[in-house]
């Protein structure tokens, strides 16, 4: 075993490796000839979605001990979506580096990844892929559904309450009551936002135990799943079942199909592309459209539908969804428990057809994801049709351009802003390099004067992202981003843009010659040079259609450590 290169050595080196473990009160036999299992913990009080992970880690440890392994818990950078500024996405790649180097540098034969809040799942999986030892994911689980004034509420309602506040329908004091009513238990966002989409992604790809995605954080069965995962990782080490054995091209394709059927987050695209880049599976933006195209929405979950993750669990969980997708999935993909994905869902039952529908009679014939091409986005852009407005899926309008987020904030509510419900709001310089970090501002709020007229949706286009809990006719991830100097960087107010989702196009009535003329006048903006990590990020981050990973982080370096300074 890998860990024996630390604890099994003779002489001074073995002495040093073992002696300092013994100062933790650990007897000699604990780490000799036993699988040593790392528990990679993103617990942090600054990541409220993951604040229950110390208890969860204890359950994992029980399972590891039970199977004859030796658990070692270690912290990594934790990314709390709600508190980190300017945006947690800026640090996803940094956290992945922390995870990768922590796993490789330490005596681990296998690793359990404790993931929850949005970026904690992709960053941990990306880092682990670059090492590629036996790995299993345990998600923290969603919060209980929020309850306010007799209604079920969740994160997607924040945008509705914000619009109500702008229109004077509710007061600031009421918001404080709603805050407590929405976040009433441990766990991550209760809707099919990015955290839930990531938990579904790992389950669909087979790198967690079945059922992992939907068990509420505070349901006792979440602890049971954690314990069983601890038990299983020891077996995975004995079987040498590595991430690369599970994460095949077919496993990625299954995840894309499942994400379309559940109306998963658009962030899923960026994170899955980055993970594929680490494990060496060829995956392109066009694959997402090809594989999602004819898959309707069958999980009736917010923000695309009505219900919450708790409801999904009671309705049968992700295994029930996957069983309904059986005819279109790759059924023989091997998973973390050693069974095929089909064996994992074959006994699942749909207990509530209001929450999980069928492919024949879906909730919404619109798929959860579409990839657009055109002269606005030479390398592509994405939209979530299932959370968009039907009447805007084919729409032509004049652009109202905001050069950056500060420009948007300064002008969006001005009474004399030349905008109506047919306009298309365009927000630039919120991409990976331009912001930097690609924040979730793409579903920008509508102008106050249009909200007051009762307008609830408009076409919006940006090079940024949208929260997985967001909704609307929102085109995201425009690539190349404005800061990279593509056509998008020179789109001007008044340009006529046509969004045609059925034909997957996003076109602006500007000739190639005019684009060139504008680019010559408006030289490419160079983002401010900053020191430290942000500087490294700006210079090495790739565009959204490649997963926004750093160029030098693609691929992996394996688990071998060549040099030893002891
Ligand atoms: Fe953590 Fe939504 S804020 S999952």
Quick summary:
By secondary structure, the chain is an alpha/beta fold.
Please characterize this protein's 3D structure.
The structure is a single chain. This protein is an alpha/beta fold and 566 residues long. It contains 20 helices and 14 strands. The protein has helices spanning 4-7, 11-22, 53-66, 92-105, 120-129, 157-166, 172-182, 194-205, 220-239, 243-246, 249-262, 267-279, 285-292, 309-314, 317-324, 341-345, 405-411, 448-452, 512-521, 532-540, and strands spanning 36-41, 70-75, 110-115, 135-139, 146-148, 151-153, 370-374, 377-383, 394-402, 424-427, 459-462, 474-476, 496-500, 505-508. It has an 8-stranded mixed beta sheet with strand order 7-8-12-11-10-9-13-14. The protein has a 4-stranded parallel beta sheet with strand order 2-1-3-4, sandwiched between helices. A hairpin with a 2-residue loop joins strand 7 (370-374) and strand 8. The chain is globular, with a radius of gyration of 24 Å. The two termini are 20 Å apart. The chain binds FE2/S2 (inorganic) cluster. FE2/S2 (inorganic) cluster is lined by residues 49, 81-82, 117-118, 155, 188-189, 193, 195.
Summary keywords:
single chain; 566 residues; alpha/beta; eight-stranded mixed β-sheet; globular; binds FE2/S2 (inorganic) cluster
Uncertain segments of ≥5 residues (pLDDT<50)? none
Continuous helix count:
20
The helicity comes to 25-40%
Amino- and carboxy-terminal Cα gap = 20 Å
Query: Strand order, biggest sheet?
Result: 7-8-12-11-10-9-13-14
**Ligand list:** FE2/S2 (inorganic) cluster
Spatial shape: globular
Rg measurement, Å: 24 Å
How much β-strand is present in the residues? 5-15%
Structural class: alpha/beta
């Amino acid at each position: 075993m890998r860990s024996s290169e630390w604890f099994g050595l003779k002489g001074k080196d073995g002495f040093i490796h073992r002696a300092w473990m013994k100062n933790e009160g650990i007897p000699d036999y604990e780490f000799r000839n036993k699988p040593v299992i790392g528990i990679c913990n993103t617990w942090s009080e600054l990541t409220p979605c993951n604040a229950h992970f110390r208890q969860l880690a204890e359950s994992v440890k029980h399972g590891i001990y039970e199977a004859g392994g030796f658990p070692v818990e270690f912290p990594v950078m934790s990314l709390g979506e709600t508190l980190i500024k300017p945006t947690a996405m800026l640090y996803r790649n940094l956290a992945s580096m922390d995870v990768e180097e922590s796993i490789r540098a330490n005596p681990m034969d296998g690793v359990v990844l404790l993931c929850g809040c949005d970026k904690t799942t992709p960053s941990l999986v990306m880092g682990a892929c670059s090492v590629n030892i036996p790995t299993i994911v345990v998600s923290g689980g969603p919060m209980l559904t929020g309850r306010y004034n007799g209604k079920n509420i969740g994160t997607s309602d924040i945008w509705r309450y914000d619009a109500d506040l702008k229109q004077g329908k509710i007061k600031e004091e009421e918001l404080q009551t709603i805050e407590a009513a929405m976040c009433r238990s441990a766990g991550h966002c209760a809707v099919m936002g990015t955290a839930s989409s990531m938990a579904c992604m790992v389950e669909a790809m087979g790198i967690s135990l079945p059922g992992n995605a939907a068990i509420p954080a505070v349901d006792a069965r979440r602890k049971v799943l954690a314990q069983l995962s601890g038990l299983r990782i020891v077996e995975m080490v004995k079987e040498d079942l590595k991430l690369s054995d599970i994460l095949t091209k077919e496993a990625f394709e299954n995840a894309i199909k499942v994400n379309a059927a559940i109306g998963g987050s658009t962030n899923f695209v960026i994170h899955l592309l980055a993970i594929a880049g680490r494990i060496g599976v060829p995956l392109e933006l066009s694959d997402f459209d090809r594989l999602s195209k004819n898959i309707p929405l069958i999980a009736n979950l917010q923000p695309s539908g009505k219900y919450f993750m708790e409801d999904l669990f009671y309705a049968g969980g992700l295994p029930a969804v996957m069983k309904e997708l059986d005819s279109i999935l790759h059924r023989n993909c091997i998973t973390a428990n050693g069974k095929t994905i089909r064996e994992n869902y074959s006994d699942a039952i749909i207990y509530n057809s209001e929450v999980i529908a069928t492919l024949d009679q879906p909730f919404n014939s619109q798929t959860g994801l579409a990839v657009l091409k055109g002269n606005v986005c030479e390398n592509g852009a994405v939209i979530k049709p299932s959370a968009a407005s039907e009447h805007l899926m084919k729409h032509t309008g004049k652009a109202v351009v905001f050069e950056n987020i500060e420009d948007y904030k300064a002008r969006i509510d001005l009474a004399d802003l030349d905008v109506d419900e047919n306009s298309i709001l365009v927000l630039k310089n919120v991409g990976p390099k331009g912001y930097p970090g690609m924040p979730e501002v793409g579903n920008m709020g509508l102008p106050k004067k249009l909200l007051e007229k009762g307008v609830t949706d408009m076409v919006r286009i940006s090079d940024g992202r949208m929260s997985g809990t967001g909704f609307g006719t929102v085109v995201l991830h425009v690539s190349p981003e404005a800061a990279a100097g593509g056509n998008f960087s020179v789109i001007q107010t008044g340009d006529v843009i046509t969004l045609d989702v059925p034909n997957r196009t996003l076109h602006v009535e500007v000739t190639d010659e005019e684009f060139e003329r504008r680019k010559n006048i408006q030289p490419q903006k160079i983002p401010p040079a900053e020191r430290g990590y942000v500087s490294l990020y700006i210079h090495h981050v790739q565009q959204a259609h490649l997963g926004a990973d750093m160029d030098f982080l693609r691929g992996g370096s394996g688990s071998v450590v060549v040099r030893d300074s002891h």
